User: What shape does this take?
Amino acid sequence: MKRIALIIVLILLAVVAFKGPDSLIGLAKMSRTASPEGQTLPNVLGQPMGKNGKKVLVAYFSWGGNTREVAKLIHEKTGGDLFEIKKEEPYPREYKPTTEIGKKEREQNLRPKLTGPLPDLKQYDVILVGYPIWWYIEPMPVKTFVEAQDLSGKIILPFATSGGSGIEGSVEDLRKTLPKAQVKDGLLVNMTGRIDSWLKENGLN
Ligand SMILES: Cc1cc2nc3c(=O)[nH]c(=O)nc-3n(C[C@H](O)[C@H](O)[C@H](O)COP(=O)(O)O)c2cc1C
Assistant: This one.
């Protein structure tokens, strides 16, 4: 029995290693598209004072809307500013081509250009950075964002959504990218995606 379980685990690992995260998380999402423009949130800038008296920014990147919803919930609790990180040349609306571009950007360690202007990060004490996990880490536009200004001494709180991967790889990567910032342990919030797929299964989304 144990041997069969071990063989199944080994086969699954081989599939993931060969095909990447698509093989496990993508099938149900092959036809997914990015959320319609109408669902974007307005940025909130110029009122950095958060509810706890610290100057707070919630900055997030989201392709399909899951991370945007989490960012909205977090911002409602923290107060302060809210900013969406957007790539200048947007990703396709279809899932599969987006995964391919995301993979290429990661493999080539690219820093895609962002839509500006970016908020002046000097003014904040705490920056919450949200993103979907892409190929086990944060998408490259997030790296463009955090490297664009000096974040020495800042407290960075990462949060993410994913199709099942953990947030730890991205936190480790952010710590390497920002050795002078205090990158805290991150929070993975996969609830919104699960609500969507459950409603969809039952014809309500
Ligand atoms: C380019 C790309 C790569 C992805 N890579 C992973 C991955 O490595 N692990 C994972 O669990 N999910 C992966 N996903 C799924 C997303 O992390 C997940 O659907 C996330 O909730 C999407 O957030 P968003 O709606 O804010 O874009 C990937 C999705 C895309 C588009």
In short: The pocket of flavin mononucleotide is lined by residues 21, 25, 62-68, 95, 98-99, 102, 132-136, 161-165, 193 (CB under 6 Å). The chain is about 40% helix and 15% strand.
